[in-house]
Write the structure tokens for this entry.
Amino acid sequence: RKEVEQDPGPFNVPEGATVAFNCTYSNSASQSFFWYRQDCRKEPKLLMSVYSSGNEDGRFTAQLNRASQYISLLIRDSKLSDSATYLCVVTPGFQKLVFGTGTRLLVSP
Amino acid sequence: EAGVTQFPSHSVIEKGQTVTLRCDPISGHDNLYWYRRVMGKEIKFLLHFVKESKQDESGMPNNRFLAERTGGTYSTLKVQPAELEDSGVYFCASSQLGQISGNTIYFGEGSWLTVV
């Protein structure tokens, strides 16, 4: 079983749509949680950290449920520029990041 | 300020050959990490240096891979001999000392390796 599981997609949505991605992680000792964005043939870039209380950054909302070991990302009012792969990432308490395979989002006009 | 730089950006080699990837971390970053993504798989941790010392090399796939960081500055990752399954993108990342978090670790653009 993968440490971090994500639906690979792709999610095809029209501009303006709301889309949600989910992720589960297996290591209950994981300490930090993030969503990264990766554009085609580019490096992963931090989108936002995820906190149990939930956090919002503009059109993006992230939520963590430690009891269920579940992380979510909600994107409202999708833009063409949101098309990318979204990576769920956790840190198991050591000096490394554990990545999910990513969920591909395609936003169309 | 220069970011994490990696060289070469792309490399095509034949099976059995040797390739050396180089990473220059951000100046002053003692932590240096190597990750890789092979086709269809997730990005996976390879190893972690603190200055010139290997802190964690639990992700290194086998003894065909050798990472060094002499002097605690740049790092090299050598694959010898390369196999077809080594094809993928190799990312280097760096951070300052201390607990890492998503906003303190910086990735390079990656070295894309194709073994034919």
About this structure: Chain B touches chain A at residues 31, 33, 35, 41-45, 48, 55-56, 59, 89, 91, 99-103, 105, 107-110, 112 (CB under 8 Å). The radius of gyration of chain B is 13 Å. The first strand of chain B starts at residue 5 and ends at 7.
